[in-house]
UniProtKB/TrEMBL annotation:
<dbReference type="Pfam" id="PF13280">
    <property type="entry name" value="WYL"/>
</dbReference>
<dbReference type="InterPro" id="IPR026881">
    <property type="entry name" value="WYL_dom"/>
</dbReference>
<protein>
    <submittedName>
        <fullName>WYL domain-containing protein</fullName>
    </submittedName>
</protein>
<feature type="domain" description="WYL">
    <location>
        <begin position="206"/>
        <end position="262"/>
    </location>
</feature>
Length: 402
């Protein structure tokens, strides 16, 4: 294969992407040698490498005209002493800035560890992150090491892809010969929802007659919290006497436990309620009430208000915590209102008043988790204090020494 100037730039670009970074460059001569070696390895004995001059011209063109947003630069000998402070073997020459830094790759790779994927799938994704980033061959893989969970759902990536497509697909086209309104943005999805059985196997939920139960949902957002992905949406066909629609139908599913998800035809199963039909407090607007862009439910905030995810209204909760609990408060709650309570504990340390918005049941679980040392005292609402008292009574009866 003969080498032409117009071909050389592609090979040079690939070589810089794969084998250089901001501390390790390649000279024009080394690039010529790498190209010749690469073609010999692939049996291209008739290959003629571009000249040193052509390579330099292409390098300067890449420097002045970034391709795919990738910056090309040059490491001079004068820069080596500074580079040795963070790298043992810096090399002068031309280089391409990595698309992802080592720390960014670590964040992406570590986030994969939190997903319940198979070991093979995790390895494939890790390789793709490394290839996307660029840098010296093998270097990106040093950023992290991924181990798979023992129990995982092989449908996880299919679920994420389907939900993303359902949320972002545009309006369905209105048939020209039918006088029906345009369908709202997005599409509904239908799926099975699984529980873990003995031994860790996932089994779909079933009805009383033994048939598999299917769920139909208007998906709003996938939200990541405390090691899990939650799918927030409006659940179709869930009606209980005495419950308002926003209390029972605005709900959340753990994405890891969703199986066999299908994006539905909007003509046959239209979206019942788009996100703009919900007020910021999680209540559903009346059918004749116009949407208000300044008062729309934020699915991320909806999930973050719940230290443990339960549906239901988030209410103001006031508590007093010891100083050592402040870190825990800020880690569990997105926007707590913290102030000095004017009180001190038995050791003279200041106590802090904290106000958060959270469903009472979720807050009761959180408070019980940190109640062993008396570090949290709920002041209001009284209904939550009563629930904690009753829970304490049950614990006393259950664990009273015999």
């Amino acid at each position: 294969m003969a080498a032409y100037s117009k071909n050389a730039i592609v090979e040079i670009f690939e070589l810089l992407w794969r084998e250089t970074d901001d501390a390790h460059g390649l000279t024009a001569n080394e690039i010529v040698e790498r190209l010749e070696e690469h073609h010999r390895e692939h049996g291209d004995d008739g290959y003629k490498a571009p000249s040193n001059r052509t390579v330099r011209e292409q390098l300067y063109w890449l420097k002045d005209n970034p391709v795919l947003g990738r910056s090309v630069g040059r490491i001079d000998q004068s820069a080596l002493p500074e580079l040795r402070r963070r790298c043992a073997d810096p090399q002068p020459g031309w280089y391409m800035e990595p698309y992802l830094s080592a720390s960014e790759m670590r964040l992406l790779a570590d986030s994969l560890m939190l997903s319940r994927l198979s070991e093979d799938t995790l390895g494939d994704l890790e390789d793709k992150i490394a290839a996307l980033s660029g840098g010296r061959e093998g270097y990106p893989r040093e950023a992290s090491h991924i181990d798979a969970f023992e129990h995982y759902n092989s449908d996880f990536l299919h679920t994420i892809e389907g939900v993303d497509r359902a949320i972002h697909e545009g309006r369905a086209a209105q048939p020209p010969d039918e006088l029906i309104p345009r369908f709202p943005n997005g599409r509904a999805v239908r799926f099975q929802y699984c529980d873990y059985m003995l031994g860790g196997a996932l089994e779909p939920r079933r009805r009383r007659d033994g048939s598999i139960r299917w769920y139909t949902l208007d998906p709003y957002r996938l939200v990541y919290k405390t090691g899990r992905y939650y799918l927030v949406g409006y659940l179709h066909h869930k009606h209980h006497a005495g419950a308002e629609p926003h209390d029972e139908n605005l709900t959340c599913f753990i994405a890891d436990r969703i199986r066999d998800l299908h994006v539905l035809d909007p003509v046959r199963t239209p979206v019942a309620h788009t996100l703009d039909r919900w007020r910021a407090d999680g209540t559903l607007r009346d059918d004749d009430e116009p949407s208000d862009p300044n008062d729309v439910l934020d699915p991320v905030e909806y999930v973050r208000q719940r230290p443990y995810f339960v549906t239901g209204e988030a209410v103001p909760i006031t508590m007093v915590v010891r100083r050592g609990m402040l870190g825990t408060v800020y880690e569990w709650f997105d926007a707590p209102d913290v102030s000095d309570s004017g009180q001190c504990d038995d050791e003279g340390n200041p106590m802090y008043e904290v106000v958060v918005r959270c469903p009472e049941l979720s807050m009761m679980w959180w408070t019980l988790q940190y109640s062993t040392g008396g570090d949290v005292i709920v002041l209001s609402p009284q209904s939550l204090r009563q629930s904690l008292y009753e829970a304490g009574q049950r614990l006393i009866r259950q664990y009273r020494p015999k």
